[in-house]
Amino acid sequence: MPANFSGKWILETSDKFEDLSILALDIDFATRKIAISLSQTKVVSQDGDKFDFKTLSTFRNYELAFTVGVEFDECTKGLDNRNIKCLVTWEGDKLVCTQKGEKANRGWKHWIEGGKLYLELTCENVVCVQVFKRKE
Ligand code: ECB
User: ipTM, 2 decimals?
Assistant: First the structure.
């Protein structure tokens, strides 16, 4: 039985987020300073292998819908504005996305551990880990 990510999650800690933004994704100084100060909320809807991830903040929102095992095109509009080809697969209970495009070694992983939602964002040699706790 695969993990169930559904629900509302609030960002608790974010490690190497600024490194990811500046070193790897080329986000400008002003945007980066706003981005690192934001409280982020993930709203996840899961129906079997169909997912909808909403990343919400007071500054910008980002939405991504996909089906595990089905390749799709993503434009990271409002983030680093790049076009990438993505595939999400299950690795055990981890949801793993590989993102092919201009940037090497790009992708993310989600998993649940100790009741918390983890997100590992990778680009080139930078690994950012965000931990979210359930909202009520
Ligand atoms: C949408 C809230 C954050 C807005 C930040 C705005 C500008 C900074 C641009 C790039 C910073 C680097 C990464 C963004 C980190 C989080 C946003 C969503 C990352 C993502 O791809 O989440 C996946 C997995 O949960 C679903 O889209």
Answer: 0.97
